[in-house]
C-alpha cells in the first residue's frame, strides 16, 4: 500500500508546475482569503511598495495542469506563504508548438500599503497591445491585468533561405581520380528558396514555395568513351539548374515564443532539371522533370517582433525517369532511363533563413 501511495505522490508532483521561491525578508504568512494584487508592468505599481523576494512557476517536463489561471494561482499561494500581498510579473513564457505546453512566469513578491484600491476593475497603463482587454479583471479575489502578446498576430509569413547544397547521388563507375574529384565538386552547389504563407492563428499555414539549386564546372583535356564505343576528346562542362515550385505547408511557433520560432515545412510540386553542358566543344542541353518534394525544419531567432533569422535544414529532391537532349543544330533525342540508371536529384540543403511576418 505504501508503494502505491508513493507512486501516486510522484505522479501528482510530476503533473504540477515546478515552483521556486526565494525570500529576502521574512514576514508573517497571510490567510488563504487575503487578497493578492497582480501587476503586469512597473508602470502599474503604486509609489510605495517593497520587494521581499521572487517566485518562478515553471514546467517539470511532465506538467499538465499549467494554464495561465492555474499558474497565477500557484504564484498567489507562494506570495501568501511569504507574506506578500502583491506580485509583479517580470517574465511570461507562453506555450509553444515545439517547446513547453505550459504558461511559465517569474514574479517579484511585493508588499503594498492598501490592496483595497484594486477592488474595482481599472484601466492599466501599458505600452504593449493586450490580447483580450486593457482592463484589469478581478477573479477569486485576485486582480489580474491584461495578457500581452507584444504585437498583433500575423496572418502572412514570407520565408527566404540561401545556403550550401549537397546532392546524395553516387558518382558513375569507371572514373579516373580527376573525374571523381570533378563529380564530387559538381554535386555541391548553391541553393535558395522563397516561400509565402497564409497563417491560421499565427501557427499553421498553406502557401507556395519556389526553390532553386545551381552547380557548374569544367574539366579540361579529357578522353571519354561513350556507351557506343565512340571516343570524345576535349573539355567537358556542366551548368546544372534544378528548380522546384509547388504548394507548401508550414507549422511554426507563433509570435509569443520569446527567443525565436521553430518550424517544419513540407512541399510537393513540380521539379525541373536542366544542364547546359558542353561535350568536347559542342553544346548539349539536357532537360527533365518529375514530381518533387521538400521537407525542412529550422529555428529562427527573433531580431525584431516581425523579423527573424536562423538556420534551416531541408531534404529536397525527386527522380528523373527520362532525359531530353537538345543539340546545337536543334535536333532532339529523348532517352528513357532504366531503373538502375534513374537520375537521382535528392540533396541536403544547409541554409541561413529569414522569416518576415506581417
SSE layout and pairing:
Layout lengths: L1 H14 L2 E6 L12 E4 L9 E10 L9 H15 L3 E8 L10 E9 L24 E3 L2 E3 L11 E12 L9 H10 L1 E13 L3 E22 L5 E22 L7 E20 L2 E23 L2 E14 L1 E6 L4 E5 L6 E2 L2 E11 L1
Parallel strand pairs: 2-4, 2-7
Antiparallel strand pairs: 1-3, 3-5, 4-5, 6-7, 8-9, 8-18, 9-10, 10-11, 11-12, 12-13, 13-14, 13-15, 14-17, 14-18, 15-16
Structure overview:
By secondary structure, this protein is mostly beta strands. Helix content is 11%, strand content 54%. The protein is built from three helices and 18 strands. The strands form two sheets. An eight-stranded antiparallel beta barrel has the order 8-9-10-11-12-13-14-18.
Beta percentage is over 45%
Mean pLDDT: 84
Oligomeric state of shown chains: single chain
Look at the helices and sheets and give the structural class. mainly beta
Q: Helix segment count?
A: 3
Q: Order of strands across the biggest sheet?
A: 8-9-10-11-12-13-14-18
The rounded Rg comes to 31 Å
β-strand number: 18
- Spell the H/E element sequence: HEEEHEEEEEHEEEEEEEEEE
Q: Level of helix content? A: 10-25%
Major beta-sheet overview: 8 strands, antiparallel, barrel
What sort of overall outline do the alpha carbons produce when their principal axes are compared?
Answer: rod-shaped
Could you name the ranges where pLDDT drops below 50 across 5 or more consecutive residues?
2-14, 120-150
Measure the end-to-end span: 58 Å
Would you kindly provide a brief summary of this structure?
This protein has three helices and 18 strands. The protein has 358 residues and is mainly beta.
